[in-house]
Write a structure and sequence with these properties.
Number of strands of chain B: 0
Distance between the termini of chain A: 45 Å
Strand content of chain A: under 5%
Number of strands of chain A: 4
Order of helices and strands of chain B: HHHH
Structural class of chain B: mainly alpha
Oligomer: heterodimer
Largest sheet of chain A: 2 strands, antiparallel
Shape of chain A: globular
Helix content of chain B: over 70%
Distance between the termini of chain B: 120 Å
Number of helices of chain A: 9
Strand order of the largest sheet of chain A: 1-2
Largest interface: A-B, 66 and 54 residues
Shape of chain B: rod-shaped
Largest sheet of chain B: none
Helix content of chain A: 55-70%
Strand content of chain B: under 5%
Number of domains of chain A: 1
């Protein structure tokens, strides 16, 4: 459905539909199209620095996560049991990461060691994802370089952990599978070829895993918000002369509007769930990769 | 349901108001690009914008993310997690202490309960013994009282029998005396003569015999 509208050849004289306009990074935060108002940001400053939506909200997410965790750390330091909604909320999120991500993925002892990294990762991604669900705000995780950078950090942590645990040589050997084939020289050669091929695949997997990690989060966030936009955009497609499609009739305005609003409401609820789920998946896979690097299966 | 109806009505109202604005939007300054009528230009725009949404030229976002997240991790690891670990250790110690205290209190209460149970059992035994003793005392007292009563009653009976016998002898003596007098009087009246002392004695003896027989028969 998205593809139909995205690739639909615009009618001459009509405005082109850009389904990603509200999802991608830009130098302004739009406040309703119909009001034509926007908060303008500095944009590009020099050749390398850009003050746009995503960097600002990455920074906001980092500040919120940092402030929240520092605040709760001070509270926890007293040794008192948690009191109040906010304290309970933040602490339950931290313990959720410990009990459902770090310990199952890495193990009880090592899991607690990686808890600071994993909990920061989870909270940061979760908050970045949630920003997209607040009207007018962007989700910085809808950019491949943001998720790529996070995946790169995970890549570093995974392999550094593996090397520290097993030594460089030992860690590199963990990628080579043990294959033992009974038989003559032919079978042995076949075994070596198989071992070599699988080792190459395993080495490639180390990179592919992280790439997939980045793409999964980026694609989910981008697609989710784009779908929400497009479903709401149906109203313009039947009512706005600038975007009205050929098959649109005047009577379609009300049913399409109701359908769009109901669907967007339902999908927004789903999107909130996905915001948490994707943060969980990213962090959980990071924990599993760390666990596999520290304690290889073969 | 009421809220759902209100929401639908509100949505209708909003659309009714919003529609003219949308219709007039083309008169306002639009940011969106107007597709050129020229086919060649349109093709160029599409080609250039194919993957534009990915903004692959924005390397700075990746670097910025690395810096921001890296700094966030470092700050939290340096300033937050030691405190959290300390607090959790304190909390663990407090919970552990409370647990130990609870276990000790439970043990103490179990000991006290056992002690009370033992004391209660001893008290029960004492009560049982006292009850048995009291019952025995009561039984012996009852028997003693019964025996005393029987002895007293026997003595009373004997005394009564003796009294009866005395009274009987007394009564018999009186009767005898009166009988003699009566007999004397009667015999005097009957024979109209004076009788001697021997007659009196004889008559009296006869009368007494007669009287004894009569009493015996009665």
């Amino acid at each position: 459905m998205l593809a139909i509208f995205a690739n639909a050849a615009p009618v001459e004289g009509k405005k082109a539909i850009d389904p990603f306009e509200h999802v991608v990074d830009s130098d302004h935060i739009g406040i309703f199209d119909s009001t034509h108002t926007a908060i303008h940001l500095p944009g590009k400053l020099g050749e390398y620095i850009s003050i746009t939506k995503f960097p600002i909200f990455l920074l906001v997410a980092a500040i919120i996560v940092g402030a929240a965790v520092l605040w709760v750390a001070k509270k926890i330091q007293s040794g008192e049991p948690p009191k109040g909604k906010l304290w309970n909320l933040i602490e339950s999120l931290l313990f959720f990461v410990r009990d459902k991500i770090a310990r199952p993925g890495i193990g009880v002892h090592d899991g607690d060691k990686y808890l600071p990294f994993l909990s920061t990762l989870f909270l940061f991604i979760f908050l970045c994802n949630l920003f997209g669900m607040i009207p007018f705000l962007p989700s910085p995780t809808a950019h491949i370089y943001v998720t790529g950078a996070l995946a790169l950090i995970v890549f570093g942590v995974v392999h550094v952990s593996g090397i520290r645990e097993n030594g460089t040589g030992g860690y590199l050997k963990t990628f080579i599978p043990h294959i033992h084939l009974e038989g003559g020289p032919g079978m042995k050669i076949f075994g070596y070829v198989l071992q070599f091929s699988m080792a190459i695949l395993e080495y490639l997997t180390a990179f592919i895993r992280v790439f997939v990690l980045a793409v999964r989060l980026f694609a989910n966030m981008l697609a989710g918000h784009t779908v929400l936009f497009m479903i709401l955009f149906f109203i313009k497609l039947v009512a706005d002369p600038d975007f009205k499609i050929a098959i649109a009739q005047d009577w379609m305005y009300y049913p399409v509007s109701i359908f769009s609003v109901v669907m967007v409401t339902a999908l927004s609820l789903l999107e909130i769930f996905i915001a948490g789920l994707q943060a969980f998946v990213f962090t959980f896979l990071a924990a599993i990769f760390i666990g596999l690097a520290k304690h290889p299966a073969h | 349901m009421r809220y759902a109806i209100l929401a639908i009505v509100a949505a209708f109202g909003l659309f009714s108001v919003a529609r003219p604005v949308l219709a007039d939007e083309n008169k306002m300054t639009a940011k969106s690009t107007v597709v050129k009528a020229d086919a060649g230009e349109k093709k160029d725009v599409e080609k250039k914008d194919g993957l534009a949404f990915l903004a692959l030229e924005r390397y700075d976002l990746g670097i910025f993310t690395l810096i921001v997240f890296g700094l966030l991790c470092l700050i939290l690891m340096r300033f937050a997690w030691p405190k959290i670990s300390e607090g959790l250790a304190k909390r663990e110690a407090a919970i552990s202490g409370a647990r130990d205290e609870a276990i000790q209190a439970r043990k103490d209460s179990e000991d006290i309960r056992e002690k009370l149970k033992a004391e209660f059992a001893v008290a029960q035994d004492k009560i049982r013994a006292m009850m048995d003793e009291a019952r025995r005392d009561a039984d012996s007292l009852r028997i003693k009282e019964k025996e005393a009563g029987v002895a007293e009653a026997t003595a009373e009976r004997k005394r009564a029998l003796a009294d009866i016998e005395t009274a009987k002898q007394q009564a018999l003596a009186e009767i005898q005396q009166q009988a003699i007098q009566l007999a004397s009087l009667m015999s005097t009246k009957a024979v109209r003569r004076s009788i001697t002392a021997d007659d009196h004695s004889r008559l009296l003896a006869e009368s007494l015999d007669e009287l004894k027989r009569t009493v015996t028969k009665a």
